[in-house]
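Appendix C reproduces, verbatim, an entry submitted by the partner laboratory led by Prof. M.T., so that reviewers can inspect both the input and the predicted structure.
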Amino acid sequence: MRHVEPGPAPTSLSSARAQAERAALAQFYADAANARAKYPKGFSAYQGEGVREALTRAFHGKCAYCETYYAATQPADIEHFRPKGAVADRQGTLQPPGYWWLASDWSNLLPSCSDCNRPRRQDFPAGLPRTAGKANKFPLGSERTRAVAAGQESRERRLLLNPYLDDPARYLRFVSGTGTIRDGEVAARKTSAGRPAPRGQASIEVYALNRLGLLEKRRAVLRKLEAHLARALELKAAALRHPEDADLVAAFRAAVADIALYTQPDQEYSAMCTQVAADFRATLFGQDTP
């Protein structure tokens, strides 16, 4: 996951259809008798023209949570960061209403792959398979802060990372069980008190960011990146021994450029690659760089 600017909202989200749906929702929930009711007519304005395409452009065809390319193999789910119809409690029971006033709010919409968004049985590196996926989960540090009306969201102690609002690199670190960056597993960074950051920890759990299939894909990219890193180090050493060899110096600089490609926003698992490349920065770009 990496920070992304949402860009301008598609015009369909301010269309007469969208406005009519918002008005109907507001009227329904203005009745105190419906305070804990499920909205009977469902939601559709968020699926308006251009929404899916705008999300795909903003995230380069990648899932907002795990950075896996979806564009070539599946349509993205238009995911509601704050669930629109109901919120799952700690036991997984749906409790309506959800954040109905955000059902077609551009800032609440993200593209998600089905494995991050939909509940299904997933394999993990250790332990038995379990049901994972965000679905209607939206955990808070304190349920007492739960927003029940528009404008109250800022008081919530949310535990999930949002790529629009957060810099995920502050909360997530790609590591292995030995503490070295090898296997592409992701862990919560430590707080100043030495404990795992709650927002990072909850996001890994809810988005299933360490599911086995995802780990295998990240590891495949990581192995390629590490090969480029090793090659760059070899070329640097050779270029320092033979600084007069322009072709050798050019080859080193090309290798560095190849590494930089992995960190670009449109690349799969670019957040992981950015962290790995940063760990090699001092070695690659020291004072003795050719």
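The longest helix spans residues 212-241. Additional entries are available on request from the coordinating office.
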